[in-house]
Write a structure and sequence with these properties.
The protein has 210 residues and is an all-alpha fold. The protein has a single domain, classed as Tetracycline Repressor, domain 2, CATH 1.10.357.10. Helices cover 69% and strands 0% of the residues. The longest helix is centred in the middle third of the chain and has 28 residues, at 118-145.
């Protein structure tokens, strides 16, 4: 099965990389064919040879972001780690991805809501569903190994996991004004601890009589 990036030419991937940087730094309003051409170092006409218009470019960017996300997260599932360790690694990898790409998933979600465009909605849903499937696979493996509860709502858990990481990013963007200032280290520790240990106090060890 061919991936989205397998169908791209080298120039198209270069254009999408520049478009990703523009949207992450300045939002989609700054994404114009002229702006992308300047970033890539080609004429505006050259951009039109690869993408019909801005909407085509934006839709392609959604597919490109999905591939970047999968390429970062998929290898985590094959790591030789216990289920709790793998969950913590998965969270850390996702937070690093959000930081590196300056919260692009959250930016695209905002664009989807703003434009009320059905194709953009489906493209964003595809990104979200891809994340959930990876998270569900990770949790099911933990259930099989006996590390996680068998009665857990797997789909719900995967959704909550995405929400926790997006909330950390939202907090940083609101407080610091830029996703590029995203401080991930505390979240890498806090999210797995909350997920694995919850709110209930840990039982005290029983005292043994001498």
């Amino acid at each position: 099965m061919r991936n989205f990036r397998d169908n791209l030419t080298g120039r198209q991937e270069e254009i999408l990389t520049s478009a990703l940087e523009i949207v992450a730094q300045e939002g989609s309003r700054a994404l114009t064919m002229k702006r992308v051409a300047r970033a890539v170092g080609v004429t505006e006409a050259a951009i039109y040879r690869h993408f019909e218009n801005k909407r085509h470019l934006l839709l392609s960017l959604y597919g490109y972001v999905k591939e970047l996300l999968l390429s970062e997260l998929s290898p985590v599932l094959s790591e030789d780690l216990s289920a709790p360790e793998k969950l913590a690694f998965f969270v850390a990898t996702m937070l690093d991805y959000l930081s590196k790409h300056k919260g692009i998933n959250l930016i695209l979600l905002a664009e989807t809501i703003y434009h009320q465009d059905e194709e953009l909605r489906l493209a964003m849903l595809d990104i979200f569903s891809s994340f959930r499937e990876l998270a569900k696979t990770l949790i099911m493996a933990g259930i099989t190994s006996g590390d996680f509860r068998r009665d857990i709502d797997i789909g719900g858990f995967a959704t909550f996991l995405a929400g926790m990481m997006q909330s950390v990013l939202t907090k940083n963007m609101l407080e610091k004004g830029a996703a590029g200032e995203f401080d991930v280290e505390d979240a890498k520790k806090a999210i797995p601890d909350c997920l694995l240990n919850g709110l209930l106090p840990r039982p005290r060890p029983e005292c043994r009589a001498e």
